[in-house]
Amino acid sequence: MIERTLVVIKPDGVQRKLVGKITARFEDIGLKIVGMKMIWLDRDFSKKHYAAHVKKPFYKYLEDFIVAGPVVAMVLEGVHAVDTVRKHTGATEPFAAAPGTIRGDYAHHSYKHSDKKKIAVKNIIHASETSADAKKEISLWFPEKELHSYKTTDENHVF
Ligand code: CDP
Ligand code: MG
Q1: Minimum-distance ligand to the CA of 10?
Q2: Distance from CA of residue 61 to its chain's centroid?
Q3: Is 49 a catalytic residue?
Q4: 86 CA to middle of ligand 2, Å?
Q5: What atom of ligand 1 comes closest to residue 50's alpha carbon?
Q6: How far apart are CA 1 and CA 104, in angstroms?
Q7: How many CA atoms lie within 13 Å of 18's alpha carbon, on the beta-carbon side?
Q8: What is the pLDDT of residue 119?
Q9: Which ligand is the nearest neighbour of the Cα of 122?
Q10: Residue 33 contacts by C-beta under 8 Å, 6 or more apart in sequence?
């Protein structure tokens, strides 16, 4: 099943100049970038994107984190793109994320040790969790005209 998913390189990933490395990881898998941009979120947008978390105790720290600097958002397309990207993203808490995953390879922050949870867990990227979430998130982040359907020359080999 070919589907699309949303990845956001969070402010910590941009600040640490990991945009190229993270994007390359997804391209190396064979996923296709069909939309990409840098934006600086405001608090209203954060509440829309993280609607499922707004009432949770950690939300205020998450909002402070996600609006702290620009982020790079991309829509990736490929076979089972949602699960594939989540697998490569790794566990929410980088300390627990497996080596080989993006969070496991580029971060080790743990909220259990983050000054009594006064900051959100810094885990480099966001990735949609389910196909339904991906559809909702993509339409929130990208108007249709910013998404592109095209064929790549290697498609017969990677799909
Ligand atoms: O990003 P992921 O889907 O793995 O985790 P989530 O449970 O959907 O949480 C969204 C984001 O909130 C995480 O990626 C963390 O940045 C942050 N978070 C946190 O700071 N403290 C928690 N206890 C849980 C999540
Ligand atoms: Mg999530």
Answers
A1: 1
A2: 18
A3: no
A4: 10
A5: 10
A6: 27
A7: 20
A8: 84
A9: 1
A10: 23, 26, 27, 74, 75, 76, 77
131 C-alpha vs ligand 1 centroid, how far in Å?
18
DSSP assignment of 69-137: S-EEEEEEEEETHHHHHHHHH--SSGGGSPTTSHHHHH----GGGSTTTTS----SEEE--SHHHHHHH
How far is it, in rounded angstroms, from Cα 102 to Cα 90? 6
Q: What is the pLDDT of residues 49-91, one digit of tens each?
A: 999 999 999 999 999 999 999 999 999 999 999 999 999 999 9
> Which regions in the chain score pLDDT beneath 70?
112-117
Determine the residue type at 6.
L
Q: What structural domains and CATH numbers belong to the chain?
A: 2-150 (3.30.70.141)
Tokens in use for 30? 């064979």
